[in-house]
Amino acid sequence: MAQVNVIHGYTASPEENWYPWIQQTADQQHYSLKVLRLDPSPRPELSVWESQMDEQIEGLDENSIMIAHSLGTIAALHYLSKHLAHQRIKQLVLVAGFNGRLGRLEEVYPFIDAAQIDFELLKRQIEHRVVIYSEGDDHVLPKFSIEQAQSLDAELISAQCQGHFIDSEGCTELPEVWQAIQPYLIPQN
């Protein structure tokens, strides 16, 4: 079964930002999509997120799709680097992603520093890779997302939504993510 897993960002929850919209869109069109619930602490630990991801992700297969936002992109890349040694997946979509420290939010440095990411493995084992960024994102500057796309040989998409893709900045829908995954979705039986 093709499961789509969404990894939210820092201090977020499945009820915020564009996550309810993508959940509703998938439900209406009968696709299996789950926005994971991860520790919203202002000082998150990668090991905690990793165990929460293990509990909520129902296995990966060649049709799996992973979507991640902001700090969730670090968690997703780390998780997939550990789980894709002998498994391919269909797609990875990263929104406002980055590879390392951003020069702000020192409280997440330990989370970022703990991540072990194997870009060569990910390029081999993920069929289609996409990075979506905003020219108006002052949380994750476009240069960081562009660098991430280069690290993954990913398709790079500049979104219409400006800012960091959060509801407090008016982003409650993100059609670029849906457009990216739609060709790869398999309906539920």
Automatic annotation (TrEMBL):
Species, as recorded: Acinetobacter terrestris
Coiled coil stretches, renumbered? none
Return the protein name. Answer: Serine hydrolase family protein
Q: Which domain of life is it from?
A: Bacteria
Q: What InterPro entries does this protein's entry cite?
A: AB_hydrolase_fold, RBBP9/YdeN
MF terms (GO), sorted A to Z: hydrolase activity
The question of whether Hydrolase is a record keyword is answered with yes
| PANTHER family documented for this protein | SERINE HYDROLASE RBBP9
Ordered alphabetically, the record's keywords are: Hydrolase
Q: Which Pfam families does the record associate with it?
A: Ser_hydrolase
